[in-house]
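We keep the chain:
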Amino acid sequence: MHSHRVFLDSSFWIAFRDVRQTHHAQARATVTALFREKACFVSTAFVFAETHATFARSRAVREKIIADFWENPLLHLAEVTDADHRKAIALLRQHADKSYPFCDAISFVVMQRLGVRRVAAFDDHFNQFGGFEVLG
């Protein structure tokens, strides 16, 4: 069921796990809505690394993030291939006028490869890139 798959970006995870974030309530509401529709979540180890780094100084949140990514039966961590790496680098060069981080470029490429059209994110990069339905 491709329509029920949602990619979870680090900007979403950070808002969800940090009560001080502007979009925290919105992230929690998004999770509730996605649970109701029985969505399947997709992310990558790159998103994990970016999210984990944000909370590296907070042991309690860091442990939640590890569990979110590595012990969550609803989350599929998509494998990132060598071809994905090459496509992401090409994408960064092609869109040199944008400030896409490598992690987002990997996310774009993986989402395209897997046919995932929806993403939970709170940064503008997914809207700027286009072609995705941004939840958040």
Residues 2-135 form a domain with the Rossmann fold fold (CATH 3.40.50.1010). The two ends are 21 Å apart (CA to CA). The longest strand covers residues 5-8.
